[in-house]
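in:
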């Protein structure tokens, strides 16, 4: 909260009350006795004279006016944060000038809070070069007052900063205590011992009683503003700066020290200074005098305020408060403010010049004096202007509101600062310009990559490195890819394989196809037409891999066939074409596919072959290219070619061209059939796919898709098998018992090779890849990230294991 100016009067009032308490009491007693004296004896006259003298003294003290500083136009208040009254704000100081301005300081002295002093020695200032011994304690370095009274003060006017060598000092400072407004004449003997020992030290103990620092500070401020020690000003300012830096633990001292520095620098001819918005705490403090002078000079010269002038003025207003988004996202806020301010006020913000002039007044921390501080010139007081604040407040609130989502993410995940995940939550005006934004590098990288085509091929590892994704072995690749997926979406770039659209994951050294998303329709990977088309692409890749890989002509034919499909929107066709390119470009994946294809059971191979034949021959005939495709597929499956031709003939399919097979002897008693009439060869050499075929093979495609999902992953030799873990019911809410058993496996063993995992999954009557997908969908709902990942080896996200075990125990 902002400091109440009236609250600063309390120390002075309390001290004045304490100072006047004893004299007032004496006066009352004396007046009460007057009625008892009759006659005119010498003793009675003597008593009356004493009473009159006492009344005169009391009346004289009561007439002494308290200083009434002028706070109408400028309030030189202690610096405080409005949102946290217990904290302090670092200050920025002007450089001390060797040439001091004229010292036209008007000082108002008030009654001190000290007790009666019997020491008549005049108080004097000890310079740094002088040492003194008090009660056996030798003090070097000076910078404090010593004596009984200051000139013009009575025995009841002892200044609280004055060190009286005649007062009692304890032998030890153990147990010393001081009140909030200490005075050397009233603190206890042990406290005096502690203070003198502190003065004799280097005065740098950060844990020393703060009362010692205040007593010391009282003398410095008196020397600066009452004695007007011009030559010593740099030394005094430097000492207060040192103390301020030393005692950051005490906010009260921070405020008084800052007020001293501002006033002292004003006396030295401080130069008007632009606002320093480096630190949010300092920015949220009251406006410093040099900044007020700077803004006043701009108003006097009728110069418009720029973005940061206006921001400093706004944040210095007493009714503008800090918010979490401001303190947490200070740099981002300043950037957003500057962009939007420039858009609203391209020539700056004009503010009418007020007639009220800036004034400065110093109110002593000791409560013993106040000082009007002269300024080097007339400066309009910007705090007297309020009307232009309204549009600035509105702009401030909009900026804060638009940073809330970003701020909340940083609150939950501070490590995401500077990552695409958080940058994308920033307003678009600053996404590319915020410090260390990866989006600029991503945009430049993609512009270069897409210069010649709408697609390009890279590796997952290279992509993660380029996009500044931290390589974390404890995190699954899917989790790391999830960090940059939103960035791609925001820039209308897609990639394959993308698990969000049904593709299998990939190793870090695997291939990634990036493509520019020119179509914006929604992609639905669950729709039958999409799954069927994807299955046919995978079957085509299998067949091509049997012949050494997919050549450009074959890939072009597949893409052409994808475009001819019905039931798919342009965005779905574009993603399928990228998937086809992925399968064509990833040679290691093709080799792995072929090796795993050979491991399928006879029944599973037959299902793949049957689906392929049904899709290729759904129109009732087969052209040479289609028969070549089927021959490659049968070769990849390790199935005899004659089984292919038998299957073709069983389906009463017309082959467009004679197919040479192994000659066999015709059984006797049967006529050799006539050679069928030749059929025209279609012009296209690609693989023909149409919806008529798709309708025929829908029922088989789902099963074959599951087989292909298992084929298009990697595997490594299995480690030694572990003892099976039995789970009677699901320990994880939202996950059925069968899938829960798979999760429990990973609690005992953090990784499984593909073969062992598939065996466990099939033992639970689950399709392996389908099980991984189900578990990860549950994990996304539960933990906001996938649980399992990997190709050759299925691994669990290690940082989630502890949470899983807790869930298991609770169940």
């Amino acid at each position: 909260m902002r400091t109440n100016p009236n609250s600063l009067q309390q120390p002075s009032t309390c001290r004045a009350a304490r100072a006047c308490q004893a004299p007032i009491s004496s006066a009352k007693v004396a007046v009460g006795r007057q009625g008892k004296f009759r006659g005119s004896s010498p003793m009675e006259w003597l008593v009356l004279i004493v009473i009159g003298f006492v009344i005169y003294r009391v009346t004289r003290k009561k007439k002494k006016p308290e200083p009434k500083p002028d706070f109408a136009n400028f309030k030189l208040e202690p610096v405080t944060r409005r949102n946290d009254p217990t904290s302090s704000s670092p200050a920025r100081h002007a450089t001390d000038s060797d040439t001091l301005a004229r010292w036209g300081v008007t000082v108002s002295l008030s009654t001190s809070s000290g007790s009666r002093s019997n020491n008549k020695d005049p108080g004097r200032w000890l310079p740094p070069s002088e040492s003194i011994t008090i009660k056996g304690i030798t003090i070097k370095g000076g910078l404090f007052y010593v004596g009984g009274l200051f000139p013009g003060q009575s025995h009841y006017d002892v200044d609280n900063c004055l060190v009286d060598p005649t007062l009692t000092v304890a032998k030890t400072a153990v147990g010393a205590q001081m009140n909030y407004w200490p005075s050397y004449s009233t603190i206890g003997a042990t406290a005096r011992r502690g203070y003198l020992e502190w003065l004799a030290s280097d005065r740098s103990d950060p844990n020393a009683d703060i009362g010692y620092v205040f007593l010391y500070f009282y003398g410095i401020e008196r020397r600066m503003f009452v004695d007007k020690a011009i030559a010593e000003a740099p030394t005094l300012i430097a000492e207060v700066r040192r103390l301020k830096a030393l005692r950051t633990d005490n906010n009260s001292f921070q405020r008084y020290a800052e007020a001293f520095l501002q006033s002292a620098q004003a006396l030295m001819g401080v130069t008007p200074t632009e606002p320093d918005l480096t630190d949010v705490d300092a920015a949220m403090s009251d406006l410093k005098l040099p900044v007020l002078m700077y803004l006043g000079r701009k108003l006097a010269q009728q110069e418009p305020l720029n973005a940061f002038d206006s921001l400093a003025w706004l944040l210095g207003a007493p009714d503008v408060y800090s918010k979490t988004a401001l303190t947490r996202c200070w740099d981002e806020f300043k950037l957003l403010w500057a962009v939007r301010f420039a858009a609203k006020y391209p020539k700056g913000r004009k503010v009418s010049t007020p007639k009220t002039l800036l004034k400065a007044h110093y109110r002593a921390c000791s409560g013993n004096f106040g000082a009007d501080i002269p300024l080097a010139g007339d400066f309009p007081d910007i705090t007297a202007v309020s009307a232009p604040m309204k549009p600035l407040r509105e702009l401030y609130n909009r900026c804060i509101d638009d940073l809330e989502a970003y701020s909340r993410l940083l609150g939950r995940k501070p490590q995401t600062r500077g990552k695409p995940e958080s940058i994308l939550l920033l307003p678009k005006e600053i996404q590319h310009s915020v410090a260390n934004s990866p989006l600029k590098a991503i945009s430049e990288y993609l512009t270069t990559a897409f210069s010649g085509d709408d697609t390009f091929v890279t590796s997952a590892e290279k992509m993660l490195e380029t996009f500044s994704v931290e390589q974390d072995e404890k995190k699954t690749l899917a989790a790391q890819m999830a960090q940059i997926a939103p960035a791609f979406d925001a820039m209308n770039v897609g990639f394959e394989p993308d698990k969000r659209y049904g593709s299998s994951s990939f190793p870090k050294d695997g291939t990634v196809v990036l493509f520019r998303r020119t179509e914006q329709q929604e992609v639905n990977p669950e729709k039958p037409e999409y799954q069927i088309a994807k299955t046919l692409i995978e079957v085509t890749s299998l067949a091509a891999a049997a012949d050494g890989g997919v050549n450009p002509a074959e890939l072009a034919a597949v893409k052409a066939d994808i475009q001819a499909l019905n039931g798919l929107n342009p965005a779905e066709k574009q993603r399928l074409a990228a998937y086809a390119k992925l399968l064509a470009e990833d040679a290691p994946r093709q080799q792995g596919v072929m090796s795993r294809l050979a491991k399928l059971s006879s029944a599973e191979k037959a299902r793949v072959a049957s689906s392929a034949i049904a899709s290729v021959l759904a129109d009732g005939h087969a052209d040479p290219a289609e028969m070549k495709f089927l021959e490659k597929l049968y070769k990849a499956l390790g199935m005899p070619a004659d089984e292919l031709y038998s299957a073709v003939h069983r389906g009463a399919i017309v082959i467009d061209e004679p197919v040479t097979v192994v000659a066999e002897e015709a059984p006797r008693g049967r006529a050799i059939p006539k050679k069928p009439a030749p059929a025209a060869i279609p012009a296209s050499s690609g693989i023909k796919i149409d919806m008529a075929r798709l309708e025929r093979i829908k029922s088989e495609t789902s099963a074959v898709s599951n087989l292909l999902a298992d084929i298009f992953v990697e595997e490594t030799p299995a480690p030694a098998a572990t003892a099976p873990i039995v789970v009677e019911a699901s320990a994880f809410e939202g996950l059925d018992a069968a899938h829960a058993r798979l999760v429990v496996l990973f609690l005992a063993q953090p990784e499984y090779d593909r073969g062992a995992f598939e065996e466990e999954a099939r033992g639970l009557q689950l399709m392996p890849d389908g099980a991984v997908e189900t578990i990860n969908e549950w994990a996304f709902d539960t933990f906001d990230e996938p649980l399992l990942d990997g190709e050759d080896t299925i691994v669990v996200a290690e940082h989630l294991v502890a949470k899983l075990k807790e869930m298991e125990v609770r169940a």
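note: The chain has five domains: 5-62, 81-94+271-402, 409-518, 519-665+676-713, 737-810.
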